[in-house]
Design a protein that fits this description.
It holds the Pfam family Ydc2-catalyt. One of its GO terms (molecular function) is crossed form four-way junction DNA binding. This is Mitochondrial resolvase Ydc2 catalytic domain-containing protein. The protein has 369 residues and is an alpha/beta fold. Helix content is 51%, strand content 10%. A six-stranded mixed β-sheet has the order 5-4-1-2-3-6.
Length: 369
């Protein structure tokens, strides 16, 4: 990483607010002193943990796969409410930044699968907890079986090149207590990583899997919400509750489906399309943003949404929104990484990166407003 940092002395000339913005755009840590943030940015721009600068230019590795297709599986962790999305992305041969084309083009990532599931079908939360208490704790073997079959199914169905897994925290909301269910999800997360790492190493000649990435949900949320505008044209406050943050991300996804110019994905046929339909039905019924858009006649409720029985069980939307936004954020981070690397080689890298930050601020508003 020292070699990377030596080539980016200009980072130290950016203001603290600019460093913060760049860190958010790259998906790396953005709090702490300027030195801490600069170190985080340099680490993110480093080609590998070893800091091998020969791999700094990603084009050397992608040229062997011109116009290859990436299959990304993004997982929002849970036991009763695990959600995942599969995106197919066309990658250009020159740089990764072609993965997520400009808004308004037709060459968008294709959402092939989008699903929320219970990894133990038939178990309710209460029943599972009661069974656990009678048995003196959860059964690791049962969780291991569920993890193995879930991963095996994902690998067979989607042949992923990249798997993104939401990183769990043992404490939520700053509380000192650790909920038993939180521990279970964390253990299940570890099992997914262990199984994937094992299969990747044992079947390296049989799978396309290139990377298993753990992603902080806080960084994903910050990327989509910090400093952006709500669909109601209101500024998202710097401090919002967890519930408000969840609803804001749901609104971002729903609005992107409605507005062709800000659409972030193309919806595939079959299961993904069915999930989008039910997602929008519940959004129309529950979101204040949807009601405001309808009042201003900016959109109309679809016939299917209008006639959906109120008694019909609807899915949780925040889990579905989280797994999709996690994948899209990760793609944008890779795009930004390549653009920053290119800007760092300009005659005046400081000026180039300042212009880049202005462009990034504008493009994010296009996606969220």
């Amino acid at each position: 990483m020292a070699a990377i940092r030596n080539g980016m002395e200009w980072l130290g000339q950016l203001r603290a607010s600019q460093l913060h913005q760049l860190a958010v755009a790259l998906g790396c840590a953005c709090s702490g002193s300027k030195k801490v943030i600069v170190d985080g940015i340099c680490q993110t721009l480093s080609p590998a943990p070893s800091g091998d600068c020969r791999a700094f230019n990603r084009s050397s590795s992608t040229s062997r796969h011109p116009r290859r297709q990436l299959s990304i599986v993004s997982i929002d962790m849970g036991i009763q409410n695990l959600a995942y999305a599969n995106l197919l992305v066309r990658q250009a041969s020159d740089r990764f930044s072609q993965n997520l084309p400009s808004v308004g083009t037709t060459n968008l990532p294709v959402l092939k699968a989008w699903e929320r599931l219970n990894v133990f079908p038939g178990d309710s939360h209460d029943n599972s907890m009661k069974k656990s208490a009678k048995l003196g704790g959860y059964l690791p073997s049962r969780y291991a079986d569920a993890a193995y079959y879930f991963i095996s199914d994902i690998l067979v169905k989607y042949d992923p090149t990249h798997i993104l897994i939401e990183q769990q925290r043992f404490r939520s909301g700053g509380g000192s207590a650790v909920a038993e269910w939180t521990l279970r999800v964390g253990v299940f997360e570890g099992m997914l990583h262990a199984i994937l790492q094992t299969l990747q190493k044992e079947r390296k000649d049989e799978t396309k899997l290139e990377a298993i990435v753990s992603i902080s949900p806080a960084r994903t949320a910050r990327f989509w919400l910090e400093g952006s505008q709500r669909l109601t044209s209101q500024i998202v406050p710097s401090k919002i509750t967890g519930r408000e943050g969840k609803q804001a991300k749901v609104d971002i996804v729903a609005k992107s489906f409605l507005d062709g110019e800000s659409r972030m994905v193309e919806i595939g046929k079959g299961q993904a399309k069915a999930t989008e339909t039910t997602f929008m039905e519940k959004w129309y019924a529950t979101s204040m943003v949807a009601k405001e858009l309808q009042r201003h006649k900016r959109t109309t409720r679809s016939e299917s949404a209008a006639t959906t029985p109120k008694t019909q069980k609807q899915p949780k939307l925040d889990d579905l929104a989280d797994c999709l936004l996690q994948a899209l954020a990760w793609l944008k981070w890779q795009n930004t990484r390549d653009l920053v690397i290119r800007d760092s080689r300009a005659d005046d890298p400081l000026d180039a990166i300042r212009k880049r930050l202005e462009e990034l601020a504008g493009s994010k508003n296009e996606l969220t407003v």
